[in-house]
């Protein structure tokens, strides 16, 4: 006869432990088989490769710029509401294309988005319409808000997207979210993004500074320098840092990638004149690239560049 302790036989107690252990093992195994791999969507993956100019704006780099981006791209949004939204944003990525007549923007933001609060702001009373959109071969539905030519969506509590080709952005979000690729594939920068890897890495690395990349740098340089410079460039990349001594201006570090060394020599002379540089500010990196550090420009000049 098994020993009795506190009214429960040891044999019965062992049986209970065995059954409970078997239940736990079965639950874990079944869960592993039935639950697909969860993929965290990086908002930068949602931008397409069709913009001429890209920019990454971390919230801590320049709160005023972040609030302007939100307020100027969400019609009928008060500054107070823009500030409330911006307080939840970590970083904004945007692709911009300017022509003589129009400016197109495709932007995404990550953070703790107050999605439940949005219908109160983006209401019919404020001139907004909305539709429910479901990507092909998907059972999920996404609310898209529209005001004239502006489209806006919040595919999750962590991502907001607005501007050009919003439905393509949602399609890509839905695809990535449902992906069940291996962990190794998920960590690859180029697994989902259509941007070149060097551009993707440059933007993603922005923390305390505003980073930009001009794929078609001509219009960017015209606004920045006030001169129509034809420098024969492949691209331009750089970063804006708030000047700690003069908070109303930026310190700009910028790299110009020329098509060949001949164009670099001519370009260096033109840029020196356009920016009013000293020899100590320009550094030739290699035969085709020129880096300039310490350029001082007003914040309003950057806001003008971004049509803000």
| Percent of sequence in beta strands | 25-35%
Largest sheet: 12 strands, antiparallel
Shape, please?
A: globular
Low-confidence stretches: 1-36
Widest β-sheet, arrangement of strands: 6-7-8-9-5-4-3-10-11-12-14-13
**Portion of residues within helices:** 25-40%
Distance between the termini: 86 Å
The number of strands is: 14
Helix run count: 10
Mean pLDDT: 80
Rg to the nearest angstrom? Answer: 26 Å
Compressed to H and E, one letter per element, the order equals: EEHEHHEEHEEEEHHHEHEEHEEH
Give me the secondary-structure category. alpha+beta
Structure description:
This protein is of the alpha+beta class. It has 10 helices and 14 strands. The strands form 2 sheets. A 12-stranded antiparallel β-sheet has the order 6-7-8-9-5-4-3-10-11-12-14-13, with helices on both faces. A two-stranded antiparallel sheet has the order 1-2. A hairpin with a 4-residue loop joins β13 and β14. The longest helix is centred in the N-terminal third of the chain and has 25 residues. It is globular. The N terminus is likely disordered.
């Amino acid at each position: 006869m098994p020993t009795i302790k506190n009214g429960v036989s040891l044999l019965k107690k062992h049986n209970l432990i065995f059954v409970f252990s078997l239940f736990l093992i079965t639950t874990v195994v079944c869960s592993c088989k039935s639950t697909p791999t969860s993929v965290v969507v990086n908002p930068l993956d949602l931008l397409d490769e069709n913009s001429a100019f890209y920019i990454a704006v971390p919230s801590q780099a320049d709160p005023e710029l972040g609030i302007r981006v939100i307020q100027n791209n969400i019609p009928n949004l008060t500054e107070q509401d823009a500030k409330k939204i911006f307080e939840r944003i970590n970083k904004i990525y945007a692709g911009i294309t300017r022509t003589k007549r129009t400016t197109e923007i495709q932007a995404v933001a990550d953070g703790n988005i107050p999605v439940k609060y949005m219908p109160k702001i983006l209401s019919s009373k404020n001139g907004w319409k909305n539709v429910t959109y479901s990507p092909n071969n998907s059972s999920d539905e996404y609310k898209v808000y529209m005001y004239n030519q502006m489209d806006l969506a919040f595919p999750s509590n962590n991502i907001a997207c607005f501007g050009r080709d919003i439905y393509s952005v949602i399609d890509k979000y839905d695809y990535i979210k449902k992906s069940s690729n291996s962990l190794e594939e998920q960590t690859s920068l180029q697994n989902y993004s259509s941007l070149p890897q060097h551009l993707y890495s440059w933007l993603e690395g922005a923390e305390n500074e505003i980073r930009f990349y001009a794929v078609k740098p001509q219009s960017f340089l015209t606004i920045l320098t006030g001169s129509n410079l034809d420098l024969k460039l492949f691209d331009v990349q750089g970063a804006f840092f708030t000047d700690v001594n003069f908070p109303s201006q930026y310190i700009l570090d910028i790299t110009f990638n020329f098509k060949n060394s001949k164009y670099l020599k001519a370009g260096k002379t033109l840029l020196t004149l356009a920016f009013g540089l000293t020899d100590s500010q320009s550094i030739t990196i290699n035969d085709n690239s020129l880096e300039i550090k310490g350029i001082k420009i007003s914040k309003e000049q950057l806001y003008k560049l971004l049509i803000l």
